[in-house]
Specification:
heterodimer; A: 759 residues; alpha+beta; 4 domains; 6-stranded mixed barrel; 23 helices; 18% strand; B: 247 residues; alpha/beta; Rossmann fold; 6-stranded mixed sheet; 4-stranded antiparallel sheet; 9 helices; 38% helix; binds adenosine-5'-diphosphate; binds magnesium ion
Amino acid sequence: MSTVRASVRWIRADLRARRVQALLTLLAVAGIVTALITSATLLEDGTNPWRGLFAESRGAHVWIHTKDAPDVAALSRLPGVVQVAGPYRTAPVTLTLDGKKSPVALREMSPTPPSVATPLIREGRWLRAGDTEGVIVERSFATALNLKVGGPFTVTALNGASHPLIVVGLADTADQGFYPEWTPGLAWTLPEVLARVEPALGRSESVTGLRLADGEATLPVVHGAVTLLDEEIQRMSTWREVRASMELDNRLLGLLLALFGVTGLVAAALAIANAVGGRVLAQTRDIATLKSLGYTRSQVFGVLMAEHGALGLLGIAIGLVCGQLIASLTLYGTPILPLSPIPLLAITGGTAAVVLVAVALPAWRGGLTPPIPAATAGPPRGHLSRMARVALLVRLPPALVLGTRDAFTRRVPAFLSIFGLAVPMMMITIGLGCWATLDDFLNHPERVGQAAALVVRPDKLPAEDAARIARADPQVLAVYPGSEVSALEPEQTRSVLARALGTSADPYPFSVVEGRMFAARGEAVAGQGLLDLLGVKIGDRVRMTVGGTPLIVHLVGRVVEPDQDGEVLSFGMDSLAAKDAVPPQFYSLVLRPGADPSTVRARLLAASGEALEVNRVVNPAERLAVIRVVIVALIAVLSLLGLANLLTASALGLRDHAFDLAVLKAMGLTPRQVAATLVTGTGLLAVLGVVAGTAAGASLVSGLIDLQGYTSGVGAGIGRTPSTLTLVSAAAIAVGAALLVALIPASRAARAQVPAGIR
Amino acid sequence: MTSPVVDTVNLVKIYQNGAVPVPAVRGVDLRVAAGEFVAIMGPSGSGKSTLVHMLGGLEARTSGEIWLDGQRADTLNESAWALLRRKKVGFVFQFFNLVANMTVADNVELPALLAGASAREARQRRQYLLGELGLTDRADAAPSQLAGGEQQRVALARALANKPSLLLADEPTGNLDSRNTRDVLRLLGEVHRDGQTVILVTHDARVAGLADRVVALFDGEIVDDGTIGMARRRPKATVGDVVELRG
Ligand SMILES: Nc1ncnc2c1ncn2[C@@H]1O[C@H](COP(=O)(O)OP(=O)(O)O)[C@@H](O)[C@H]1O
Ligand SMILES: [Mg+2]
């Protein structure tokens, strides 16, 4: 097309004339894409570590446990099988540590790492030939048992013989899920060590892994293996089970990301639309000139689309690169896989679409510019509103009044500026609310139903002794006996967890958010998940089989229930049949405020001579720590977007009032007053946007989190609004930054000599 | 002879100012032959700008016909007008309207590039025009660095870049001092002498004196058309006058 050359010149000249603005657009778009990709990658990786582990270890899709070594050649001939791992001989042993026994699968491993399903050494080293005592321990198992490289690993074989082994390395694997969700724990050692620990072949099994060409085609391979090995197979596991056991509940994260993503995009769209719109307005005369030279409406549209759209798309490309880079930097040490293609495509495509639409609207308006350049695009003359006149009457400074009037001379851009600031501010508030909710989880675990910090299991001691030792500790506030049994729902199709904790007279401090606490035998409280599952409401009576005993349960309240998707029934020990209640399976310990659970745990272990099993309760917020990274990243990007909007608003304000400046000065306003007028114009929009956004965010946030809590079964009642102090300081910082941004060009303009006849 | 460059038949333009119709041009029949230099005079608000805007397609006519180079133009849509302007019409406005972000050279090359010239052709044409207008050394300057007269000379160069068959100038000297006015008029005269058809809007009688023919407009109607005599009277002397004035 003949216009290309001319258009390229025009675009080049325009970009050169507004480098900073172009750079800001580029940064804003790149920032939002980077943030989206980073958070999506982190979420994908954080909530599903299987993907990364499987790829890194070149994992096997199917694991087959057989009595004796299977026919490897026949297995590898199964269609779809690419490589075979093992067979590895594996013996069941018992690890004894601090008097505590844990079952372990001890698996043979060669001194040279295998090419399929390699354990990934994270600490320590690989096995060496002649390592007569060395073992490598699976990392989640090691973490749970506090095993360290160089530490003892004393195992007892089935024949009762004890073997002191030493931990030489800790490794990640995708062979099985994390401990304790997946038991027994896994450890690797040299074949000769295994032969020494468990000499009897009949007491071990053989484990063979199959790596497939296509993980989706697992089922045919499983069928093939079953047909081939038939009776020999003891059990099998597939990558799907491993993945499922590693996966965290990422619904909250997903919802948050989606929310951030969508509003981030809206904010980006507003920033771009504002920037392009402002530019088009400022260029009305030039565009008219282009048309008088022979540009058609669609060609003007095309030029604007090409310039601003290309800028946006370039931003997306930069964002893609940065996203990959940052994601690979974030968790150094543990490598992170790049985002899988579908979310990546969704982010890229979504942003591109948003950018193009945001550019297209003002570009279309630009195309409609009449071709007579003499018609200048002055702002509609503002008139003093009644409010402004009142303001003058009560002797407000003239700068304030004039600025206020100026702010609204262009209604649509003013509204867009307010909106463009309000949306990022709203999201920042919501982000702060999520942060506050996480803090609340951590600081007040009792509010999410985790009043107890420690759980003590009597293990080898009589239950009464365990309770006595626990009560004797100075930092233990209360001890509640507990037992867990399974309860069958009325249709007897699915069992749920029934938890007896405390007694009806002295109930465990559940966080009751609806109804009341159970107070008599047969009364119970439940999580939202259970209420939904049974389709019942508070006050209903449900016939259930609890631990094998029929019981009519009177549901009297709803609690915040972070476990088991909220599908948990809780009542007092006195509601439980004696066979389940005596002795209690465990004791939940509520500590005094400020007590450190690990110290108390150590003390209890010491007091009981290591006979007790004491476990810390894992706070759900600890697993959600990745949200904080997401929140920080998005706040940064949203601030950038807000800044871009602000610059546009202030540039437009300046342009509109360049002419008025001379008049204002002629009226006798000092340069400082003139600057104040300009700042007031922009600042007012900023204040309105920030206040509106903060208010909207604050009123939305706890509702949103509760909605999420409701859908995930935890139940409403967890959402927190950021503290007033946080909100006020966030708003103050935003407004302050806004005024600062407006002040610099305004004071420069106020001091400049403006010829009266500029137009 | 060849068809006239401009031919209008009962051309009418009525603006709608809210509910009030504002007739700006009321039935103008104007025929301009190739190579003619027509000055349109009249008091402010008499419809001069409206008329030339319609001739260049910047504004749609309410009724009547416009023929450019023997081609019916009033029925064209906006894009077709734009394409026509690219090839046949050059505009000079009162306020120069150079693209502020582009250098003088780029401003002048723009219409040539738009008309499909190669970068090389556009550059040669620009060098020639700026040379003719005495602006060679200002090629890389930004428009804001130029004085008003210089800017208008650049605007003139830009209007001539695609060798239009019709040059429309709406009060090109309205914003210039007398020295710059003289410069610009001298250039217009030279361009006309080289065969360029020019329609010049002015309300300055001295400026109009340069033209072959003066059309007087009043309240949107032609009240006087001084075709006869003037063109024949002293076609050469016109340019000479300007040169003398300049000296
Ligand atoms: N866009 C417009 N809308 C309404 N009326 C207009 C517009 N442009 C010009 N006019 C009116 O049309 C008449 C002719 O204007 P114009 O052609 O600009 O006159 P001149 O150029 O001779 O001063 C004037 O009365 C003017 O007010
Ligand atoms: Mg006029």
